[in-house]
Amino acid sequence: MSLEARRRRVAAAFLAPAGLVLAGVTLFPALGVVWMSLEQRALIRGAPEFIGLDNYLRLVSDPRFWNAFGNTAYFTAVSVALELALGLAVALLLSRAGRARPALYAVVLVPWAVPTIVSARMWEWMYNADFGVLNYLLGGEFNWLGSPLLALHAAILMDVWKATPFVALLLLAGLQAIPRDLYQAAAVDGARPIRIFLGLTLPLLAPVIAVVLIFRTIDAFRVFDAIYVLTGGGPANSTETLSIYAYKVLFQTLEFGYGSALAVVVMLAVGLAAVLYTRMLRGVS
Amino acid sequence: MSSIHESGFSTAAVSRFSSPGRFTPGRERRRVRSRLASLALLVVAIVALAGCGASERDGAARPDLVFKHSKLFGDPAAFDALMAEFTQETGIRVRRETLPSSSDEQHQFYAINLNAGAADFDVFAIDVVWVAEFARAGWLRDLTRLLPPETRAEFFPGPMAAVTHEGRAFAVPWFVDAGLLYYRRDLLEKHGFPPPRTWQELAETARAITAREPGLYGFVWQGKQYEGLVCNALEHLWSAGGEVLRGDEVAIDSPENAAALAFMRELVDPGGVTPDFVTTLTEEPSRTIFGRGRALFHRNWPYAWGLFQREGSAVKDKVAVTVLPHHPGHDSAATLGGWQLAVNARSRDPEAAEKLVAFLTSARVQKAVAAAYGLSPPRRALYADPELLAAQPFLAELAAVMESARPRPVTPLYIAISQVLQAEFSAIVSGARPAGDALPAAQAQMEEILAR
Amino acid sequence: MRGGAARVLAGALVVAWSLAPFLWQMITSLKPVAEIGVLPPLLPSRPTLEHYGAIFAGYPLLRIIFNSTVVAALTTAGATGLGALAGFALAKLGVRYRGPILGGVVAVSMLPPIALVSPLFLAINAAGLRDTLAALVITYVSFSLPLAVWLMTNFFRSLPDEIYIAARVDGCSALAAFWKVMLPLAAPGLAATALLVFIFAWNEFLFALSFTSTAAARTIPVAIALFPGLHEIPWGEIAAASVVATLPLVLLAVVFQRRIAEGLTAGAVKG
Questions:
Q1: For chain C, which chains pass the contact test of at least 3 CB pairs under 8 Å?
Q2: I want to staple C154 with a disulfide (CB 3.0 to 4.6 A). Which of A17, B17, B123, C143 is the partner?
Q3: In the prediction, which pLDDT does C186 show?
């Protein structure tokens, strides 16, 4: 066998285990979901039957779907924007922290290390309208989790708390990759801090920011755990995201056909976002 | 899964990785290798262990029957004695397995396992709203044989309706629950008010008394978007002459319902009777508020009584119960809850399973369980039984309520309907939408579900 | 200096913001029952460990912690091992379609879990694996593979090609060269990968919720999400369980913060 062929065989052998697991546990199920979305498959109705795109037609005229889509989009947009702003502030602080940096770094990591469910329970405890510490400290009687206007924002705040460390650490790495002499040159030129930030730092950070946007958007769009524990989707479905709606359809009403169609829509939306952002990223860098 | 991305896929744009690719000396290499080897051994050992994960169920000698139910609140000795009696009488051994107490979890467990054709449990306790669904799916054995007409007459009509699907009985009621009004008898007496008969009276009494008692809430109930909200709302709209389903027709969008649900909203706003965070309350948080003496009226299931009367309770001996109020011109209504015993359609020994169900739902055993655990039996005659009343005096107050307790719409599609009702009722109670908008939306969605 | 004071203030705010919720949960877990739903006072008048005792006594928490540990450990071993193999191949064995393969691997990781829950769930039922730890391990390994493959590819790429070539010239087979030479050199990468995979597996909720139904296979996040018993939401116990569930991870994060930072950014941090 030629050297090339042997090389390729060895490479294939190394890649095979991971490839098999990925194909079996992730790829095939993904295809399975697409297939099930074309079926009428409700557990209480007996055998599944193929119905083509009917589930999708139903989805398009389903007001609850659009409500969930809107909630998810709003949640994503606001939380990503806040995470970016706060993360940048924290990153700037960390970059100037000097000797305090390791300690500060460790502290900043804590929200990231806390399991999402634990975080949801913690915030639920703080948001309690009757005896929660937030209302106590603010001196008000805000109905954080029970008001249709406040509930989604309460969820956003919790998500921002959890995800900001990740954004901050990435932006910090980006900041530290900017060569010091650029700053020195700007200082020599007499530029003011704000001009340096806007004209030098931000543009050089743009690729990192784009990457952050991609991954945070994708994650925020898929949000499930935290909101499920915090509010369960209420009040008045004001915190029902696409994943929560899909979960309820799949595992409460046991409609695997329609639920799969919902899941496919989430897949498509996430894929679309990824493609758009990657184009943007290529345009920027 | 989100933490996968928080965990660093973002290497794309960040500076290329450049770890210090130093050589490690030979000793270091060997140490790493031996550590990896011992890790591999550990992994093998753990894999062997993990395989033993859930094998507690598959014991050596399989008992004749497996009975699944949620945990009984109290001393297990009494129930164990009853099971021992059964084994002695029939020679059938029974293994009991408890499930987590959340209704949703149990539903998921049953649906998943029964759909997969599981035959590893025979008798199981199901919530009153699942019978039609499970029966339609073919997961339940027809138990009409166990409920001949004379037996049926001994049970309350509500649970009987709930276990009947297309004329056949697919479960036997085990114990029942219904919504009650708890109130602070001491405060009503102090301010000279009688227990309210109508909802308007309740609101007026609450306003009057809370004006004079600072820090007291008027009426706490369950207003979070979940199944409990449906139970609460039905009690309001049934007592106004409204309906959800009339036969096969959706009747949710009606003036009676709109008035009743608008009244619920008015308790919160502008009412001042119910705090606005009622939209976050389920049974336990609301029970805690009343149990700490911070509310005048409370709607809950009978279980709360025992907790209010236990040692150390802030409201011990100050609480009384009565039937829920009604709107003028109509009767009070209470939503039916409770658990029924069903037999797995794929049970390996259906006759034995039926014997167990008959035993557990016999008058004698239900009386014993009620006496030991304070659960409310579904048999009318037991509420006049002097021995049972001596052990659980509270049951005397419940007879009338249980007689008129109404089941939620009995349809295989109840869960889907409930999701719609939960959302629309929550919209009304939280003020997101007025009843005039929410009810037509509920009507349309329910019709769409039933038409599928 | 004004700038310095502002920085200290900002630092204090960041510390408070990051730690406050967790600290409050710790304080709550030490409060006696009578003081839990009552504010003021903020701090317990007589701190007690009764909740910590209760969560282990009245609840199979030890079993659940064991489950989480086993699942996380096995997942870490599996994903790191398979990821190292694949990453090495992609980095050093001249695979032709490396770019698209890596891109595909990353794309797969973007699939929303909710999309995959139902078919996996049906498959696991069919395989008779419902309510077992094995079901979780298999699923988690697959979901953490993209990350492991990505990280290990990068780590291996940073190692000079000559080492591998030299080992092969010396007569080692590819596998032997990998096992004896390249893998030990990639130890930092393995460590970073292992940490991140462990944390992911420990925290995962949706699949654990859907695939398990009893304490036999339940993991910590599900236990905490479903904690309330029949009656009485035991806030003190939930707080104690939360602390118990989180401390290992917080300690891991703090002790290994450098490794984690390397993994998160896969770039050398200057200074």
A1: A, B
A2: B17
A3: 83
Domains of chain C: 1-48 (no CATH), 60-265 (1.10.3720.10)
Residues A35 and A131 in one domain: no
- What DSSP element (H or E) covers B301? none
Q: What domain range includes position A30?
A: 3-50
C267 interaction partners in chain B (CB closer than 8 Å): 11, 14-18
| Residues A44 and A71 reside in one and the same domain | no
Residue B51 pLDDT class (50, 70, 90 cuts): very low
Alpha-helical segments (H) within A42-198: 54-60, 63-95, 101-113, 116-127, 133-138, 151-176, 180-188, 193-196
* Each residue's pLDDT tens digit, A215-269: 899 889 999 988 988 999 989 999 999 999 999 998 889 898 999 999 999 988 8
pLDDT digits (tens, 9 = 90+) for C255-266: 887 777 777 665
Identify the structural domains of chain B with CATH numbers, from first to last. 65-176+338-401 (3.40.190.10), 180-335+409-451 (3.40.190.10)
- Cβ C145 vs Cβ C79: under 8 Å: yes
Indicate the residue of C126, C157, C216 with minimum beta-carbon distance to B56.
Answer: C216
For residue range A41-84, what is the model confidence (pLDDT) as tens digits? 887 777 888 998 999 999 999 999 999 999 999 999 999 999 99
Q: What is the CATH number of the domain that holds A211?
A: 1.10.3720.10
How would you classify the pairing of strands B123-127 and B65-70? Answer: parallel
Look at residue A146 in the predicted model and tell me its pLDDT.
94
Question: Would you call C150 and B9 a contact, using CB atoms and an 8 Å cutoff?
Answer: yes
pLDDT by residue (tens digit) across B242-254?
999 998 899 999 9
**From B14, B133, B136, residue closest to A170, measured CB to CB:** B14
**How many of the other CB atoms lie within 10 Å of CB of B441?**
18
Cβ atoms B379, B154 nearer than 8 A: yes
The residue of A225, A229, A237 whose CB has the most chain B CBs within 10 angstroms, and thus the best one to mutate to test that interface, is: A237
**How far from the centroid of its chain's Cα atoms is residue C42's Cα?**
32
Q: What is the pLDDT of residue B2?
A: 42
Name the H helices within B269-412.
283-291, 303-308, 350-360, 363-373, 386-391, 399-404
ipTM of the complex: 0.89
- What is the DSSP code string of A237-269? TTT--HHHHHHHHHHTS-BHHHHHHHHHHHHHH
The percent of residues above 90 in pLDDT, for chain B, comes to: 71
Chain B's closest residue to C74, CA to CA, is B43
List the chains bordering chain B where 3 or more Cβ pairs fall under 8 Å.
A, C
pLDDT < 50 positions in chain C: 1, 267-271
CB C72 within 8 A of CB C143: no
* pLDDT tens, position by position, B2-18: 444 444 444 333 333 32
* Interchain CB distance below 8 Å, A106 and C254: yes
CB B12 within 8 A of CB A233: no
**Please, which residues 114-133 of chain A have a Cβ atom closer than 8 Å to chain C?**
114-123, 125-126, 130-131, 133
Backbone angles phi, psi at A122, to 5 degrees: -60, -45
pLDDT above 80 for A31: yes
**Residue A55 domain-assigned?**
no
Asked whether the beta carbons of A277 and A212 are under 8 A apart, the reply is no
